[in-house]
Specification:
The protein is α/β, with parallel strands linked by helices. It has one domain: 3-Layer(aba) Sandwich (Rossmann fold), CATH 3.40.50.300. The chain has eight helices and seven strands; from the N terminus they run αβαβαβαββααβαβα. Helix 1 runs parallel beside helix 4. The longest helix is centred in the N-terminal third of the chain and has 25 residues. It is globular, with a radius of gyration of 17 Å.
């Protein structure tokens, strides 16, 4: 990397971090706990958000920010179950940033939310480098993706608070070593909280939801 590019990158990241801090203060002022959900495309981010929102109905008020390169397909699904959602289209960008989230927050009634789920753009590299102002970071890994992902993408596994392994209903048919996968993840992040669940069968959802309820109490 050219030395003259380093100050430019530092300024960009510094400006993002300043905006992220402002976002966090705004969320704190409204007692909203924000969760940044990161995963590769197809891992099950939207399915998890939908299943979680339904499980939390009557217990916690949920809002969602959907980040995608294009379309509003996922936002439409969230709104269809009665959950307020705002779409961010990056137009080719591989991640959300704090400025984009700020614009989305201005479109939500934060006084009517307890938990905010931010579905980041499907990518295992870029999103983790940008603080959005969230309080908690969650990575999703699905069984069909294979059990070697911590080897290939150590950055995201090192930087999240929790890891959700989805589509465990497929374990009988897919060669996925759960014990080895968890060992690899914990070798990168000893304190990581790991959940195993299926949005199809509902297995593991209760444990995940109880953890979220405990987070909401900290807001």
């Amino acid at each position: 990397m050219s030395p003259d590019r380093i100050p430019v990158i530092e300024r960009i990241m510094g400006a993002n971090d300043d905006l992220a801090a402002q976002n966090r203060r705004l969320l704190d002022a409204h007692h909203v706990h924000a969760i940044n959900i990161m995963a590769s495309p197809g891992a099950g981010k939207t399915s998890l958000i939908l299943r979680t929102a339904q499980a939390l109905q009557g217990r916690q008020r949920v809002a969602v920010v959907e980040g995608d390169v294009a379309s509003s397909v996922d936002t439409d699904k969230v709104r269809a179950i009665g959950v307020p959602a705002v779409q961010i289209n990056t137009g080719g960008g591989c991640h959300l940033d704090a400025n984009q989230l700020r614009g989305a927050l201005e479109q939500l009634n934060l006084d009517e939310a307890d938990l905010l789920f931010i579905e980041n753009v499907g990518n295992l590299i870029c999103p983790v480098s940008f603080d959005l102002g969230e309080h908690t970071r969650v990575a999703i890994a699905s069984v069909p993706e294979g059990d070697d992902k911590p080897h290939k993408y150590p950055g995201i596994y090192s930087a999240v608070d929790a890891l959700v392994v989805t589509k465990i209903d497929l374990l009988p048919w897919i060669d996925f070593d759960m014990a080895e996968f968890q060992r690899l993840a914990r070798s990168l992040n000893p304190d990581i909280r790991i959940f195993q669940l299926s949005c199809v069968t509902g297995e593991g959802i209760a444990e995940w939801v109880n953890w979220l309820l405990a987070l909401a109490q900290t807001r």
